[in-house]
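[step 3/7] fold_predict: job queued, chain A
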Amino acid sequence: MGAVTSSAAIVLAAGQARRFGRLKQFETIDGRSLVDRVVATASSVCDLVILVLPADHAIDETASAKRRPTWRGSPVHAVTRGGASHGESARIGLERVPSHIDVVVMAAASHPLAGPDLYRRTIKAVANGADAAAPSGAICDAVKEHADGTIVRSVDKTSLVTAQAPCAFNRAAIMNAYGAFGGPGQPPLPPEELEMIERMGGRVELVEGEPTNIHITTPTELEMARRLADLVPRSPWAS
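[step 4/7] structure written:
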């Protein structure tokens, strides 16, 4: 793919946050919800943002809203209700991406501290020819395989990293991947899009991640994010 002419971010905020115990996407850091922080960051980099809210989210009944899900945060190109799983919600978001878009960024409310440069690095990697790109995180602790709490073996972590969010995708590649999984007679959807691209034979590149880009799954991690928020590089939502 040549130079990027446009990019769209799909902000996934449709999860039920069962591990967290309540809808974490509407929890706040410095008075601003996690989902609105992600929307603001994505908007500062991408040409348009599509927001996917929970399937049971309230509907705006006004005539001008045309029964869209209620959203009072930062402006977005489109807002819609998601499905019962990550894959269903992502597929719904992809349906709202205009055909002229080159790069699709999958962002998540569970990563509210991802800075704008992280978005730019993943988009640039796709613009330079990758089918997908993800920020990488180092594994600093020893890695062990276990069975019922007993260590079975030590795992060499030399070539291991974690893949953070947001991830960027060539639009055609991610559309083809979602067309190949989850339908009648097709393999089930993998748990996340990077694996889909890998299994389709695509090239996934890693870019430098950010240590502040933590994945919020518990109230403790939310409190950690609140303490780290001031350290995010060039944040568009800094107070």
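[step 5/7] annotate
The mean pLDDT is 90.
DSSP finds six helices and twelve strands in the chain.
exit 0
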